[in-house]
Amino acid sequence: MTTFEALGIDARLIQATDELGYVNPTAIQEQAIPVLLSGTKDFIGLAQTGTGKTAAFGLPLLHIIDAAAKYPQALVVCPTRELCLQIVKEIELFKKYMTGVSVVAVYGGASIGLQIRDLKRGVQIVVATPGRLIDLIERKAINLEQIRYVVLDEADEMLNMGFQDDIEFILKNTPARESTWLFSATMPPEIRKVSKKYMSDPKEVTVGKVNTTNKSIDHQYYVTTAQHRYETLKRIIDFNPGIYGIIFTRTKADAQEISERLTREGYDIDALHGDLTQQQRDRVMGQFRDKSLQLLIATDVAARGIDVAGISHVINYELPDDVEVYTHRSGRTGRAGNQGICISIVHAKEMYKLKQIERINKSEFHKLDIPSGKDVCRKQFFFFMDKLLSADISHGDYETYVPMLAEKFADVSKEDVLKRVAAMEFDRFLKYYENAEDLNLRSRDRKEPGSREDFGRRRDDRNMGRGDGRKEYARGGGYSRLFVNLGTKDGFFKASFLQFILDMSDLKKDVLGKIDMKDMNSWIEIERGAAQQMIRSLDGKSYKGRRIRMNDADSGGPAGYSKRPRRGEG
Ligand code: AMP
User: Fold this and answer.
1) 514: Cα separation from own chain's centroid
2) Closest residue (by CA) to atom 18 of ligand 1?
3) Could you tell me the distance, in angstroms and rounded to a whole number, from the CA of residue 30 to the centre of ligand 1?
4) From the centroid of its chain, how far is CA 496?
5) What is the CA radius of gyration of the chain?
6) pLDDT tens for residues 352-405?
7) In sequence order, what are the beta bridge partners of 246?
8) From the alpha carbon of 24, which atom of ligand 1 is closest?
9) Alpha-carbon dihedral sign for residues 134, 136, 137, 139
10) Which residues surround ligand 1 with Cβ inside 6 Å?
11) Among 54, 127, 181, 335, which is best to mutate for testing ligand 1, by the most ligand atoms less than 8 A from CB?
12) Is the full-model pTM beyond 0.70?
C-alpha cells in the first residue's frame, strides 16, 4: 500500500493528514495526486462523495500553489453551498502547517459584501458555487486572470442543476487555466461534451462503479387511493423506525402543511421551502445534518443544493413530472457506496408516469404492499427491542442499583418486565393501529380507470386538509397567457420551472394550462382568475440576481420580447 510520502506530497501537508488520521491514501487519491502534482495535466476523476476526493484535489492544490503570490491561483467550483463550506473546511485542516495560504468560500445566500472583502485580502484558492461566482465576475469583484487550476467538483450534479452554461462561462473566463480537474460520480454525455471542449487529453481515473443511473438505490412504490396519500406516508415512516430521510412534495404549501401535521402528531420533521430566510434554512439544515431532525420535507427548488451524507430514504409524496427530477431526488440517497431506498407513493392514475420513469431510468421499480397496522407494530417492537439490547451499560453506575432493582422486581417475571416496557413504549402505536384500515389500492377501489388526459387538471388530494381559510383565487372563466423572461437557459426544466412559479405565487398546479418554454422566455397559460396573483408574485422579483419580468402576453405592450442581454452572449 502506498503512503502520502511516496506520492510526493509536501511534508507539512503530511503532518496535517497524519493528525487527521489518514494513514494511507484512498484509491482516488493514489491515482489523482501524482497526476495533479505533475503540473499542467487535465484530469477526470469518476468518484463518488466519500471516496476522499476532496483531499485528492485539495492536497495537490495546496502543494502547487505559490503561497507568496497573493492572488487567486486555483478555483474549485461545486454545486452547493454546503459542499462549498465542506471543501473549505477540509482544505483549512490540510493547510494547518502552511503559512500564508488562504482559501475562501463564495456561495449564494450569504452577504456578497463580506465575500468581496475576503477576496480582497489576497487569497490563493477560491471555492465557489457557480451562480455567486458569476455574480462576482460580473461585478468585477474577482480576478480570474491568473487562475491556473480549475477543479469542477460533482460536475454531474452541477449539470443536473442546470449550471451547464455557467460552467462553460467560468471555463471561458479563466484565460490562464493550465489544468482542469473534473470530478463526477457519473459520466453522462453532457460531461463528455464539456470535457472534450475544454480539456485536452485528460487522464481519466475511475474509482468503483460508474453508472449513468445509481444501482445502489432500490426503487420501491406503494399504490394507494388519492385520499390515503397522507396516511400512507405516515405508515411508511412508522414502518421504518430508523429512517433518516427526505420527503419531496411538488408545492411548498404541501411541504409546509404535511410538516405541520406530522409535527403535531409527534414526528421529528421540518420543512424546507422558499419562504424561509437563509437563517431559518441554515437552522433546519443544521438540525437535519446533525440528525437531531429525522425527516426533512422539501420542494425540489428548496432542496437544491442539499448534500447530506447517509440519507436512508427518499420519499416521493407525489411523483414529479420529469424523469430528471426523479433522478435528482433519488440521487440524494445511495451515495458513497451506501445502499439507499427511494419510495414513491402513487395512485392508479399515476401508474403510467411511474412506468415511464422506470423505462427511462432503466431500473426496475418494486411494488410493495402498504404495511398493515400489525406489520408496523411488529416492526416498531423489534426495533425498540434491538435498541434495548444494544444499549450501552458500560459507563453508568448501574451496578449500584441492581440490588435495589432486584428487590423491587422480585415478584415480577422477566416476561412481565418486557411486556411492561413494551406497553410503555408502544401504547401509542398499538392504540393507533388497533383498527387500522388497509391502505392498499384494491380492485374494489377502482371506481373508474384513470385517464391520462385529466392528470394535472383535477383537484386532487394535493389539497389535503385545505378549506382552512387559505387564500383562494377567484375562478373566472377561460385562460390568460402570461409572458415571463425566464427560460431553459436559466437552468429550469419544465417541472422545476412549474414548481418555481407555483412556489412563488402560492397557487396550485391545476390553475395552469399549457407551458411553453424557450431558451430565454416562457409562456404560461393560467386560469384568468389566478393570472394577477401570479403576476403580482413574480413580476419585479429577482432570480439569480436578475429582475423577473412577467406580464399578460396578449394585452399588448412589450410582452414576448426580452431585451435583456444575457451573460456570455455577444
Ligand atoms: P470526501 O470524499 O472528500 O468527502 O471524503 C470522505 C471522508 O473521508 C472525509 O471525512 C475525509 O476526511 C475522509 N478521508 C479522506 N481521505 C482519507 C484517507 N486517506 N484516509 C482516511 N480518511 C480519509
Assistant:
1) 28
2) 22
3) 13
4) 13
5) 27
6) 888 888 887 777 889 899 998 888 888 888 888 888 888 888 877 888 888 888
7) 296, 314
8) 19
9) positive
10) 22, 25-26, 29, 49-55
11) 54
12) no
